[in-house]
Amino acid sequence: MLFIWGNGGGNTFEGTIGTCKCEVCDKEVPFDATIHYRYFHFWYLFSFLTSRKYVYECSNCHNGYTVEASEFKKKFPKNHIPFIRKTGWLVCLILIASSVALAFKSAGEHTNQLQTYLTTPAVNDLYVVDFRQIENSGFTKGNNAFGVMKLEKIRENGDYYFLISSHAYTKKRGVEKLLKDPTSIKFADKEDGMTFTKQQLQSLKDSKIILNVVR
Questions:
Q1: Looking at the structure, do residues 18 and 70 belong to the same domain, yes or no?
Q2: Alpha-carbon separation of residue 212 from 139, 160, 206 (angstroms)
Q3: pLDDT tens-digit profile of 130-152?
């Protein structure tokens, strides 16, 4: 990702203070009230002010003198510095807050969907599982631990019989890529499958062993 940052400056005309003697022009000329400002930016959009200088200056040659902010603001309480320069950092905060809120919303929806699928299992559901924490899964040793269980059959007594994927991955995202094409998943022989009760499946989900269900 390319990061662009830097700084810049500008000035804004806030009004006039009347006619004054300019030492450079050597005559009476209108004097402008001007704010000279500097800012730091990130990607040009997210910016904040680093300095302001309040100046009364000749409208002809721009020679002038600085004044205190309090004095300046008494005559010109509102300034015309662009919003994006004064409070561009707020845009960044809003984007961050929105991203966090969206992440929480997405996580909540995923949790609700996962719970729904566990409550009402369906044949051919695919479970993303951390096999290291399941005894007799065949993947309790080594680093390759994340794999898939396929709900093959719901037994008459209400138990659930699963086929176990023949391969596992070191990271969860390896399984997630595989799930983009479920037909490519290879499973071990049926006699190597595993049976769980609904209570056991709920316990595996609560222990974050079952990470996702794809239907």
A1: yes
A2: 18, 17, 12
A3: 988 887 777 766 666 899 999 99
